[in-house]
Amino acid sequence: MDGEESKEVSKPQESNRPLVPYPFVRGKYGLNLHEKESHFRKGRIETGSGRKVMADMVQRSNTAWIRIYDEDEPAFTMQANVHGKTASADIYTRKQTGERHPDFFARNFLVFALNHFKNEGYPVVRFEAKWILTEGNEWGSDNYQEFQKLLQEGLGPEEAARLTWTGKVLSELGFSEVESIKRSDDEVIAFFKRPGTEPLV
After folding, report:
1. Segments making up each domain of the chain, as ranges
2. Three-state DSSP class for 147?
3. Are 174 and 194 in contact (CB under 8 A)?
4. Among residues 57, 58, 144, 193, which one has the fewest Cβ atoms lying within 10 Å of its Cβ?
5. What is the mean pLDDT of the chain?
6. pTM for the whole thing?
7. CA-CA distance, 82 to 64, in Å (whole number)?
């Protein structure tokens, strides 16, 4: 995605690899990821609610991904990917009906995933956000609806992208610039980047 060739990644020294806490209260909510950052790769993970949740953490050359999903309702899923220095994510923690997964927290997962990628030698400098129109689907995109609403209120595409939930969270995490936006009738793709990042080639 960044036009980079496949290469070996260089991991930071163990002492420079801080763990990022993910919410976990046994018997209530969250995921026990506190000690999984460097060692966990695939299998079931402990949940606060007692629901069955599986996870995969995979690395292949300059590509890596994390996927965490509910065994009984796989549509409840949190997945983040990185290719070269560009990350993306598909996160569904809440249905359009308002039903939320008790163990899944979107912002915390993004922080966890980006920290994991950094620790494993993937310094993410750009984030690709894809928002899709899914009318009548219980897993609709809040970001797509919010983006369109902001456009109707008179904001430009870049400012509208910044003010979506994803845009606000990414800005907090350092991806404060909107590099480009591609729009069609039912899809929006926005690239956010860290200040000073070279343009896509």
Report:
1. 20-122, 125-195
2. helix
3. yes
4. 58
5. 86
6. 0.83
7. 5
